[in-house]
Amino acid sequence: MEASALENDISMVTSPEFPAAEDPIEVFRSAEIAATHPAEADLFARHEGIPAHDQKRLAEARIVLVGAGGLNSWAGVGLARSGARSISVIDDDRVDRTNLSRQFFDADDLGRLKGKALAQKLARQAVGGAVATGVGLNFEEILEAYPLPADIFVAGVDNNECRMQVVREARRRNIPAVFTMLSRDGMRCQTFLQSASTLEPCLWCALPNLNPEQVAPCASAIISSCLMASAFTIFFTHRAIMGWGNIPYFNWRESDLSGIAPDRTGVIKRRDDCTICSKPNG
Ligand SMILES: [Zn+2]
User: What is the mean pLDDT of residues 102-106?
Assistant: First the structure.
């Protein structure tokens, strides 16, 4: 079977800092899908008229996805398709068979580092062309090893320790971060936009009872809730990058797939007793 033109455009660059057998960092590139005629409408023509949409700002933003599982793999597809051109993906897990029912991986990805496998896929999803950096390290390791450029973090992970690291690193850099979480039964999602400003609340202001030690890898998950949650993740990421225009601002969204709990949208305020916000530089 012949490789497509797009496949040929995806080149692989390895980083010199990691001479080990498997390099944990790979960069994948894709070119914009070209028009066949000069009169053809722009790729993103249908975004015109979408409230607060700014294609240029989205194209220029350096988006870092922390986690490449059920939440961020779909959020990544949405961001890449809608015109994000610089995406890094951090995840040191490897793709296993149980992931395939709800994550954007297939048989060819089994055993691969998720950060790298998803970055390669997102380069192909980026119809406007993109540079996608795949990182098969955990968040703490990558911060130590590599000056990861970022204008926003998108955290779709299943443990509070990593969420805490993202909260602090976003504060340290004065950049926004989006957090997405699923309930244990996989039916309800919560999404929070942590603003770049330290005057605004952090994730722990929103959820003060989050236990930093807690890991929830065995929680239930199904693709329907992952896709629902990803829509809100993409929306918050778009807003953090492009602004709100005439859309009334909010930073919290909670939704229940089953419809049992009412959907909630709100503005979380900073808490004076928040242990993270009360420390200088988070
Ligand atoms: Zn706080």
Answer: 98
